[in-house]
């Protein structure tokens, strides 16, 4: 009898899991279920002023931490899009400090200066900075050894661009795993930073980021087209053990349907995963908060803007905007005559009130704050605009998150083949989610084979 694996969740982690399952075991029936009308999750390309604009994630890392191409680059190649990867221009980025745009400092790791400034002490500790397996917040490690200004004005804005989170709440092991590992054998932060940089296997001079020409939706569509059974608009309401496998309850309570599976991959956020795992003995939930964000894209008539790829805005500036990207400066393939493209990000963890505005009000705030930061009285009236809201989009990893995930996975190993995948467990970023999905596929396939 043909074995069936059901993947719940059609974001990039679920797509990657289903793709690996089908690639490694074409004899296994792979079914991908997603409650949305299209797969892809936060990878979605829209149209602005007649051209593509990303409604969510805009790029991915080109290199893997262990060396070689990242999981995103490998997946793009596997679905025929390797030649469509393009890279950003050499335009520099800036950070707003006291209302002035300043270049991001060089010689840092996630904004942390490798060399301690004269104003702070980086005294050697008697034992390593971090005990094996221990975890702290990024702020707890960095503030005493680099000062509040470094954390508030540079480190936190960079973390905010990735997580929309706070340095004093985010887990060091999840946000900066290479630094956490280096800290286990280092007695100063300078030593740990140098060790983390030395351990990097990125090829010097190689592009750091890439994207797919034509938009991230091309990657989603290509992966989905390679799968045998993708069902959108399907809600999974319940999951329970059934014989040697699982039974999923689909659809509404009035029109419920059952789907049996030999194995399941849950590639959904923490809360829906927790709901589905309620009846699975020992599967304690992984407590996880999420930050919401809104992206405001503006297509302006040709406008003079700073010669930057974009800039970050620390929370200490007291503004709603936390980051701005000048798309036609950053990405040469997006340039079009007579049009200036920019996209602003609004929303930090704990500051969701900024997102309670209407779309019109949110655009107004973005226009006013961007104009102020680039030094003009007002932006010209836009040719087109888009407001893209992502409620509960970015997980906020607190210290020891990885330990809680490991405990959940150990509990799941006592049941018929089942695995969890995605940003809730293994980190944000497209390559991290793809790697997580592939690992989940490997886990259930190994169990099926056994």
From TrEMBL:
Domain Amine oxidase per the UniProt entry, residue ranges: 12-445
EC identifiers of the protein: 1.3.3.15
Compartments it resides in: Cytoplasm
Catalytic function, reaction form: coproporphyrinogen III + 3 O2 = coproporphyrin III + 3 H2O2
Pfam families according to UniProt: Amino_oxidase (PF01593)
Highest taxon, organism lineage: Bacteria
Record keyword Heme present: no
Main localization of the protein described in the UniProt heading: cytoplasm
Cleavable signal peptide: none
The keyword Flavoprotein is annotated on this UniProt entry: yes
UniProt entry keywords in alphabetical sequence: Cytoplasm, FAD, Flavoprotein, Heme biosynthesis, Oxidoreductase
Cofactors demanded by this protein: FAD
Pathway given in the UniProt record: Porphyrin-containing compound metabolism; protoheme biosynthesis
Similarity comment: Belongs to the protoporphyrinogen/coproporphyrinogen oxidase family. Coproporphyrinogen III oxidase subfamily.
Function summary: Involved in coproporphyrin-dependent heme b biosynthesis. Catalyzes the oxidation of coproporphyrinogen III to coproporphyrin III.
Name under which the protein is recorded: Coproporphyrinogen III oxidase
Species annotation: Dactylosporangium darangshiense
């Amino acid at each position: 009898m043909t074995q069936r694996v059901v993947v719940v969740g059609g974001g990039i982690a679920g797509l990657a899991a289903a793709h690996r399952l089908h690639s490694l075991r074409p004899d296994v029936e792979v079914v991908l279920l997603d409650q949305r009308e299209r797969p892809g999750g936060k990878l979605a390309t829209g149209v602005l002023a007649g051209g593509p604009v990303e409604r969510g994630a805009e790029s991915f890392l080109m290199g893997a931490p262990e060396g070689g191409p990242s999981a995103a680059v490998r997946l793009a190649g596997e679905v025929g899009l390797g030649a469509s990867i393009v890279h950003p221009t050499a335009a520099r980025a800036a950070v707003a400090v006291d209302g002035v745009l300043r270049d991001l400092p060089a010689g840092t790791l996630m904004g942390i200066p490798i060399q301690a400034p004269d104003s702070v002490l980086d005294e050697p500790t008697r034992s390593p900075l971090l005990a094996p397996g221990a975890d702290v917040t990024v702020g707890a490690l960095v503030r005493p050894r680099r000062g509040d200004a470094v954390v508030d004005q540079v480190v936190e804005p960079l973390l905010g661009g990735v997580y929309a989170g706070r340095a004093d709440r985010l887990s060091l092991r999840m946000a900066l795993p290479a630094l956490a590992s280096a800290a286990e054998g280092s007695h100063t932060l300078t030593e740990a930073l140098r060790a983390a940089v030395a351990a990097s296997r990125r090829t010097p001079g190689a592009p750091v980021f890439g994207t797919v020409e034509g938009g991230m939706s091309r990657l989603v569509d290509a992966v989905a087209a390679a799968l045998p059974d993708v069902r959108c608009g399907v809600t999974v309401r319940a999951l329970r053990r059934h014989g040697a496998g699982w039974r999923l309850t689909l659809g509404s309570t009035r029109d419920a349907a059952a789907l049996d599976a030999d194995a399941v991959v849950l590639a959904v956020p923490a809360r829906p995963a927790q709901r589905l795992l309620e009846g699975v003995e020992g599967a304690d939930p992984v407590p996880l908060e999420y930050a919401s964000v809104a992206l405001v894209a503006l297509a302006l008539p040709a406008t003079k803007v700073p010669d930057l790829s974009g800039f970050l805005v620390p929370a200490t500036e007291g503004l709603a905007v936390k980051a701005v990207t000048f798309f036609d400066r950053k990405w040469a393939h997006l340039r079009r005559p007579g049009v200036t493209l920019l996209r602003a990000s609004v929303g930090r963890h704990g500051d969701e009130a900024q997102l309670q505005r209407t779309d019109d009000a949110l655009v107004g705030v973005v226009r006013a704050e961007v104009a102020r930061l680039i030094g003009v009285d007002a932006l010209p009236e836009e040719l087109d605009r888009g407001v893209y809201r992502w409620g509960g989009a970015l997980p906020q990893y607190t210290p020891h998150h990885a330990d809680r995930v490991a405990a959940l996975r150990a509990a799941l190993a006592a049941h018929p083949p089942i695995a969890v995948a995605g940003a809730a467990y293994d980190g944000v970023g497209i390559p991290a989610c793809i790697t997580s999905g592939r690992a989940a596929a490997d886990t259930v396939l190994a169990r099926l084979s056994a």
